[in-house]
Write a structure and sequence with these properties.
With 85 residues, the protein is mainly alpha-helical. It is 51% helix and 7% strand. β1 and β2 form a beta hairpin.
Length: 85
């Protein structure tokens, strides 16, 4: 043969596998970073364009008087007027 023992062959295969996994990991990290940068760029463009933020309708609580969002879950008090979901 080529002078390779079984142990050396297995070691060579394992080194190749590790190199392949590292390259695959680096590729995945690069794709995630590019996607994150694209999301940031889109958010900055939306901010620059003056995209309106969705309005939140508030109403006064009939028990404590605090203003809460109309679609907020109940606060946990026994006399909370927010509807339970």
């Amino acid at each position: 043969m080529l002078g390779l023992s079984v142990g050396k062959f297995i070691l060579l295969v394992l080194i190749g596998l590790v190199v392949w996994m590292v390259l695959r990991y680096r590729s995945r990290v690069r794709m995630i970073r590019e996607a994150f940068r694209e999301m940031q760029r889109q958010a900055e463009q939306a901010t620059r364009a003056g995209a309106p933020k969705p309005p939140v309708s508030l109403r006064a609580c009939t028990v404590c008087g605090a203003y809460v969002a109309a679609d907020a879950p109940p606060c946990g008090r026994a006399d909370c007027p927010q509807p339970r979901r």
